[in-house]
Structure prediction request, 750 residues.
Amino acid sequence: MNWLMNNLPYVGQLSALHLLQSIIPVIAGTLISIPIARLAVGRRRDGRSTAGHTAGSAFKRGAVVNTAALLYTIPSLALFVLMPLVLGTSITSPLNVYVALTIYVVAMMVRSAVDAFESVSPVTLESATAMGYKPVRRFWAVELPLAVPVMLAGLRVALVSNISMVSVGAVIGIQSLGTLFTDGLRRNLPAEIIVGIVGTVVLALILDRLLALIGAWLTRWRKA
Amino acid sequence: MNTMNRRQLFTLAGLGTGVLALSGCGLSGETAFGSGGVSDTVTVGSADFTESQIIAEIYAAALKKRGINAETVPAIGAREAYIGALQEGTVGVVPDYSGNLLLYFDAQTKAQAPEEIMKALPSALSDQLSVLDPSPAENKDSLVVTAEVAQKFGLKSIADLAVHNSEITLGGPPEFAERSYGLPGLKKNYGFVPAKFSPINDGGGPLTVQALIDDQVQTADLFSTDPAIVKNNFVVLEDPKNNFLAQQVVPVVNAKQVSVAAADVLNEVSALLKTEDLIALNDRVSGEEKTNPATAAKDWVDQKLVA
Amino acid sequence: MNIFDKTWAWFTADGAWTGAGGIFQRVAEHLGYSALILLIAAVIAVPIGLMVGHTGRGENVVVAITGALRALPTLGLLTLFALWLGLGLVAPIAALVILAIAPLLAGVYSGIAAVDKVTVDAARAQGMTESQILRKVELPLALPLIFGGIRNAALQVIATVTVVAYINLGGLGRYLIDGLAVRDYPRMVAAVVLVALLALIVDALLALLQRALTPRGTR
Prediction:
């Protein structure tokens, strides 16, 4: 407690950095995942069969989902340190962390976005078409909104996991609440590490709550 | 540490506007601030151990006191990492230690005395880099044992360890296994090849000290300015063959990033910094008091650097 | 030589595979830590998940706990436990067990909870005891979701157990942390390849085991 009181501005600043490194990859990763997942799901067979896909699209779906899962097996530390090699960035650039974490979010989100699009009933889509919706408008006005609830569940897991993963960047000198772990270890300061752990969990709880609220607002049609 | 990293903000701004496709832009934005002659802000980097961080904060505080903008990038990593950052110009100056710096660029060097090392350094460094004046403050790597182990094995010098090779585990940072002053040097100079090497990533910190006390390792690589040595009655083994070279604190700079005025301030700091200061500062930051490195550094600068 | 050639050279160098610090030793350590961690985590998570899934009591608590556990940063736990417990196996294993509990608990709990209540009532009507229902009805039916949790946990542990090299343990993380200390990229790339391969192989084996264990009727 004492340590926290004496270092409030420092902890605040690290929290701000942590927040940025948590949010940006989640937004970027989600934006990337949605089109990939939509393409992977492919053209849904119309109302005649609610089961799902053609043989070609099943293969495409499997390939996309498995590639994404493979990305997830790369240790986060490894991804952080190899980024300069891939991107040509500086060793100290926070961009390494942003891109690496975006990759993880994509790895997690593609899967749930695929599930989300598949959860939309083909019958509903067909009704929309029958009502005169063109494909593009049908996607934005019907398919995407209906996919939000399932997607949101995946997004919340991705967000929370991402927040705890950000801290690993401290090992390569990218500052976040994780800096409190490496610094606390070197200075024999458990209080500093505890502040970092609690800060990370609190940040995750707040953002998760916020995301749930945004989700409720986005899907307010469900209550109507 | 207290200044928000400006580059980070700009990279963010770049990212926020156009997300990932802009990774190239984020980069060019980065260099744009460093290019076009000497930057008006000096970026001070540091290695991933506490003393390096303290000295980096001292540099930054001194520069600010003399009216020069400065920001810090703490704990970049081991020498391989921060030298890389210096060469790129993403940081302008990093506090280093003369002997190990020379060995990094010239593993075959014959230089041993402090003056020889400083003389050999300028030509050994890569083109983008140079060193400023060395400080009288010294901090060597050193092999340390507990008083009990020293007595049990009859140890005074590193050479005595070689007799007990098979009974000894050595603790140190991972890079110690491969650095020329690390395991290779100990083998070459003394025939000392520990049965096991235990890599510990705490920069010669509490885990390493505890491992010594608990006899999990029998000898460890600690910094000679570590207050834990005196506090725990550790014995520093003599190094008659100078495996560990003289290590004066010296700012290594990327000349493009550091103005003459800034270099003058850093030289002023070097002249004032003594070995006792390092020990006292380490104790404030990592001992009972747990002062912030930035605070301890600022106190020192306020006290020593005449306004 | 580009990075791929250099990595290949690292893999084919003398002594890369056998001997102290060779790939075989590191893989064995990596698997050993992972298995130990998953085992301990399972001992903690499975009974709780079964209880909560079966009785339906404490659901909210389990959901909240798995969420909070997911947010706990492993590096933080590792450094904290290391300061408290010193070097050795206990600190890093404990930190990773906490990581593995969340997916295991979520898998077991949601698997049992998802079993159709009508099926459970039918079993009860036939005179099965609660423990029989759990073992003979709910557990087999929940296997797919439970295995989903196990595979999830295994993937996470195998990828994350690399951080134990930050404290002085072995495993494939050694190549990563040591390579990082001296900026040896080929060694780090090799570590990534090895960890990913290991994760894929283990995942495939678990998938086979799942097939073998799942009752034919529910496949």
Summary: Chain B touches chain A through 42 residues (CB under 8 Å). The radius of gyration of chain B is 20 Å. The longest strand of chain B covers residues 69-77. Residues 1-37 of chain B have pLDDT under 50 and may be disordered.
